[in-house]
# Entry
Amino acid sequence: MKKLVIASTLLALTTASSFAATTGTLLLQGVVAQKISLTVTSQAVASTLDLSTTQTDLNVASVNEKSNSKTGYKVTITSSNLSKLKRADGAEVVAYTMKYGGATVDLSLAAGATIANNAASSINVNKSVAISYTGATAESMVEGTYADTVTFTIAAN
# Structure
């Protein structure tokens, strides 16, 4: 009987090893989440514009764009007063133009301007914001605060 148990055990071990795999696989995987953001940093001069002096490409802010989107991204810039500094309690305006990253952007339409970056890569870039306008003497303008709000929005393509 003892020989029968030993023989059965040896047969079971031999049978199990003859069906064992000779290769195996291991899946290693990680996930990178999509990250898109922008930060607007204004210069002090942006809130203390001298409207009596003509300005050309006056640096008023910088915008940091960050994206790791595989489809790229777009930045949309809109102006609440359609590219005009408007007197807070009146209808008087001072028209201005804007450059974003050195390129002129048209803010005269409600849709604003959209700048696309179709690169599928990791981006971390700073872009300058500059405005130009024609100054006028204080005597030729109605007193008050002239302002416009410019909104920058970033989104994946």
Q: What stands out?
A: The longest strand covers residues 55-67.
